[in-house]
Amino acid sequence: MKQIATAKAWGTWLSTVRQEVLEGFRLHGPCSIADVADATGRPADSLYRHVKLLLDAGFLEERGFRKGRRNAERVYDAAADDFAPPRISGSSAKADRAMLVRTATVLSRATVNMLRDSAAAGRLECTADRRNFAIQYELTWLTPARYAELRGHLLKINELINQGRARREGDLYAIYSLATPVTRRRGVHSAPAQARTPKGATP
Length: 203
Hints:
Blueprint: E1 2-3, H1 7-10, H2 16-28, H3 33-40, H4 48-57, E2 60-67, E3 72-78, E4 83-84, H5 93-120, H6 144-167
C-alpha cells in the first residue's frame, strides 16, 4: 500500500475520468494509454492530461516503452495495489477530514452508478441461488478491539480482491466498504445501554 503525501495530491483522482483511468491501469497494467482508452471507451487523446496529473500525484508510474502498432508506446502502471490518504494531523486536520468525506462521497456515488447501470441492463440476479450483488447497512456497538477485528476482516477481503485483479477471471465487480463512528447531529453519541440478556440465558 502506498500513502499519498498530501490532501491535494489525494484529491487528484477524485474525478470520474481519473477514477476510470487509475482503475484501468490497476486492472490492465502495465499498459499504454491507448489500452486504457479501449477499456474505458474514452478517446486516448483526452487521457494524456489525466495520466500526467496521476503521475505527478504518485498514483501512476512509468514502466518504459514497448513496440506499438506504429511507434514505440510509453507504458504505465499503478504505483501500488492500494493507496492510503495522507495522515490527518496539525492545522490541516479539518481540511483533511473534509477530504476523507469527499472521498467517501465520490466512491459511494460511483458504486451506486455502477449498480444502477447493471440494473438497467438487466444484469442483477435476485434469486437466492443466483444472487450476484450485495447491499448491507448495519449499526452496531464496537469496542476498539472489536473494530480492529472488523478492520482485519476487511483487509482480508481486500486480499481476495487483489487476487481477482491479478487473475482477471469472471465478471468485473465494484466493491465499496465504509465503517465510521456515528455522531448524532443533536450531540455526541450516547453510551450503549446495558446489553439485554437473551431469554432463557443466565445473566
